[in-house]
Amino acid sequence: MAEHFNGQDCMTLDAVRELIAPEEAGFDAPFATFTWQHWLEVQATIPHCFSRFLRAVEEKRADQVLMIGLEVQEVANQMLLEAYAMTANLPLEELPALARKKEC
After folding, report:
1. CA pair distance 34, 27, nearest whole angstrom
2. Would residue 10 be called left, alpha or beta, if left means φ above 0 and alpha means ψ between -120 and 50 degrees?
3. pLDDT tens, 53-101?
4. Claim: this prediction has a pTM higher than 0.85
5. Number of neighbours of residue 28 by Cβ within 10 angstroms
6. Which of 8, 35, 50, 93 is the most interior residue, by most CB within 10 Å?
7. How far apart, in whole angstroms, are the C-alpha atoms of residue 35 and residue 46?
8. Of the candidates 29, 34, 30, which has an alpha carbon nearest to the alpha carbon of residue 81?
């Protein structure tokens, strides 16, 4: 006996992806501004930039060295924005930098 196919038993592709890998949609990410997918891309980008930077220095390509440095700076800025987003709602006394200052 064949079962009759009912269109109501179907899930969209997006719904299936969310069930399989919810972090891809930004769920369960410990970050304020990054998604897991973006974080994984950043992790892959930095070592790649370092390799390209070394190669450009060896080839004495100042233009490439500058551009690669700017790519790394962009990642650093994104990380600073993440840090700011995490601390934006904290009172100033609770910020890590000020806490260390009081200890000195």
Report:
1. 11
2. beta
3. 999 999 999 999 999 999 999 999 989 888 888 777 666 566 565 555 5
4. no
5. 8
6. 35
7. 17
8. 34
